[in-house]
Amino acid sequence: MDPLLGDCSLANLARRKSHKWREYPPDVLPAFVAEMDFVVAEPIAAAVRDALAIGDTGYPYVGELGEAFASFAGGRLGWTVKPARVFPIPDVMTGIAEVLMATTAPGSGVVLNPPVYGPFFLRLGYLGRRVVEAPLARTDDGSYDLDFEALDRALAEPDVSAYLLCSPHNPLGRVWPAEHLLTIADLCQRHQVELLVDEIHAPLVLPGAAHVPFASLDHPMAERA
Length: 225
Fold this sequence. Notes:
The chain is an alpha/beta fold. It has 9 helices and 6 strands; from the N terminus they run αααααβαβββαβαβα. The protein folds into 3 domains: 1-54, no CATH class; 59-88, no CATH class; 90-224, Type I PLP-dependent aspartate aminotransferase-like (Major domain) (Aspartate Aminotransferase, domain 2, 3-Layer(aba) Sandwich), CATH 3.40.640.10. α7 packs parallel to α8 (178-191). It is globular, with a radius of gyration of 20 Å. The mean pLDDT is 94.
């Protein structure tokens, strides 16, 4: 038992009814999808129990979400957030899709950095947007890094209207430093494209790395992204 993750024994995980643990026969150990294979923190479990006890299962209300996230962002990420600019969404990909629908035209190009989170490609196809690839560059030590020349070329392609950046990068785990993010900001500003930054994995960076929230940068694009 891990003091942080709780009892994650295979026997207990196999009792779960999520897609991961029901898609395949019991003798298969599934690893095809990221899943919450840990015990829910007791304050969260208590809040769910309290809600169920009074039948509180209606449509959600934003409540103090903005204030709660602003407190978390300030304490964990060193990022000052205005609570009024925090909006609830069903999931990350839905939020990305809604923003792209509002800011880009059907058939326009959206730049991605493969190898990257697979559903990016799938959802852009559903939206009728065209994927424009600016692949990450393989480095001498076998890892990957942003290829700014490839990114510059991709952003310059006709009808490219947006760039979807994964920061920290999934699945590679790269935490982009501030100088990389500032170069991205310069390129997006010069090419006049919208910038969406998926920072969902920001709280998971390993010791020794520091996530830089894009909106915390001292750059005009930080207000627009």
